[in-house]
Design a protein that fits this description.
- There is one protein chain.
- This protein is of the alpha/beta class.
- It has a single domain, classed as P-loop containing nucleotide triphosphate hydrolases (Rossmann fold, 3-Layer(aba) Sandwich), CATH 3.40.50.300.
- Helix content is 54%, strand content 13%.
- Strands 3-4-2-5-6 form a five-stranded parallel beta sheet, with helices on both faces. Strands 1-7 form a two-stranded antiparallel ribbon.
- The chain is globular, with a radius of gyration of 16 Å.
- It starts with a strand and ends with a strand.
- Thymidine-5'-diphosphate binds next to helix 1 and helix 4.
- Thymidine-5'-diphosphate (TYD) binds next to helix 1 and helix 4.
């Protein structure tokens, strides 16, 4: 049995953090030891880089510099947390991973998918998610949810605006279509509870031994 590596992706406000928390809680309640992580961040060094990336004071950050900072976070996470967890037979659930860079930097910022794939390859050394769960939500609903949560205070990425978020959403839809065997696309307009049940049912039906899979 191999531990699974599952990732949640979506535009800002789609609910990746909430659904990641709910899934981990459900698995822990069932007695599984789960490694829960997030990007950007997830390590001490990564959390410092996260603070810089989300700080509106750095509005002028160059797009390639931004890409490399996300990749630096990812590299540290892979080396320090993901590889040891998976080789120690612990399943991993992450709030965001490589598809965030593809959608935000590659598509929405316009850096292109080939460049981002190269950088992702350096950061991950080939460690891919077994399944990426794309939480799809329209930009307006996502903004309303974010405003409710933060009282209208936006981080540097959120300040890029609705057009930017719309491009990210299109990017995610393209990525989900490109690799259907490794993707699960869900409508995030559902209630928190309904969506978390859909996530769990879909995982069980795809991986009968979830959060593990039979070794190849
Ligand atoms: P997130 O933690 O989801 O923000 P919040 O805590 O406000 O919900 O994500 C931080 C932001 O970073 C989000 O706008 C997506 C962006 N991001 C990228 O642009 N590229 C990446 O590679 C990653 C991992 C995140």
């Amino acid at each position: 049995m191999q531990p699974l590596f599952i990732v949640f992706e979506g535009i800002d406000g789609a609910g990746t953090t909430t659904q990641c928390n709910r899934l981990c809680e459900r698995l822990r309640d069932a007695g599984h030891e789960i490694v829960q992580t997030r990007e950007p961040g997830g390590t001490e060094a990564g959390e410092k880089i996260r603070a810089l990336l989300l700080d509106p004071a750095f509005a002028c950050l160059d797009h390639r510099a931004e890409l490399l900072l996300y990749a630096a976070c990812r590299r540290q996470l892979v080396a320090q947390i993901l590889q040891p967890a998976l080789s120690g037979h612990k399943p991993v659930i992450s709030d965001r991973y490589t598809c965030s860079s593809l959608a935000y930097q590659g598509i929405a910022r316009g850096l292109g998918l080939p460049l981002v794939r190269q950088i992702n390859a350096v950061a991950t050394a080939g460690l891919d998610a077994d399944l990426t769960i794309f939480l799809d939500l329209d930009v307006h609903t996502a903004l309303t949810r974010r405003n409710k949560r933060s009282g209208g205070v936006e981080d540097r990425m959120e300040q890029a605006g609705a057009g930017f978020q719309a491009r990210v959403r299109e990017g995610y839809l393209e990525l989900a279509r490109e690799h259907p065997e490794k993707s699960l696309l869900l409508d995030a307009a559902e209630t928190e509870e309904t969506l978390s049940l859909q996530v769990y049912k879909a995982l069980i039906s795809r991986f009968p031994h979830f959060p593990y899979r039979i070794s190849a």
